[in-house]
Amino acid sequence: MTQTKMNRRGPTVAVLGGGSWGTTLASIVARNTPTILWMRDAEVADAINTTHQNPKYLAGHNLTHSLTATTDLEHAVTIADVIVMAVPSQHYRQILEDISSYLRPRVPIVSLVKGLEQGTRLRMSEVTNQVLPGHPVGVLAGPNIAKEIVQGFAAAATIALPDHGQAIRLQRLFNSKRFRVYTSEDVVGVEVAGAMKNVFAIAAGFGDGLGAGDNTRAMVITRSLRELTRIGVAVGGDAETFIGLAGMGDLIVTCTSPFSRNRHVGVELGKGVMLPDIIAEMNQVAEGVKAAASVIAIADEYGVSLPIAAEVDQVINHNQPVADSYRGLLRSAPGHEIYGSAW
Fold first, then answer.
1. Which of 114, 197, 271, 290 is catalytic?
2. 290 carries an active-site annotation
């Protein structure tokens, strides 16, 4: 099929980043419109084009046959009508700078990244607006475990852009019968929820690693949602966002799924494994490890109390034993469940 004929079916989407979630979402979008997946690994790109699988991250799971992969960033961006960013937060700014000379004006940019930029503590939409001003910028997030979605299990997400009409137009590219995409204008809330829930997932993992039980897990998740909402509203998010897919939904799955990288970090720390050893054996990024210090800095800036996040930061960045974190939380006096500011 020629490129001209393909373009008549819909806009061309370029997904930048060939990890598990970038690959999975590209496979979904490829069912709706021409889609190209950019990655650095030539062997994986060749495998996607010939076997329709990503052997590095999603071995054994078939991808949409019309999805194509490339290592040529210029080609992927030049033909794109929509850019989807699926790279780790520490590489996000550099990739935007790399594509700036290839990208046509006003091409929408949608972030899948659930993290904050190190040093600046900026959300990904803020980084995009700095590097590529004038482009519509949005975020897509929700309770999305790639290995389940690529197998066809039902899931949902929220796509948020300031212009709701633009969100509706992009919604059609991502939506399918088994991957339901809802719209929102709350970019701030969706991004804050996606970035900060990873820190709380590490806390939930602590309990699982220590063998604390289901009641403790439920307590930690529930109080984490309260902290997530508190800081999210403080920085400008809508409270309703945090009881939706990008908030409560994503928090639950990230705190409970055996596929959750951030929960895995917490579990291993709870078992006594050292953080450098945990990171070394993982082949993907656990954003909560890098975000913990940033979350506490933001909380301090806004005068918001985040006891659970603070304990995670103490473990990750200040060598506090996991068991001490749990004992410290349990020593604090509980206040009003809804209006109290403490744990």
1. 197
2. no
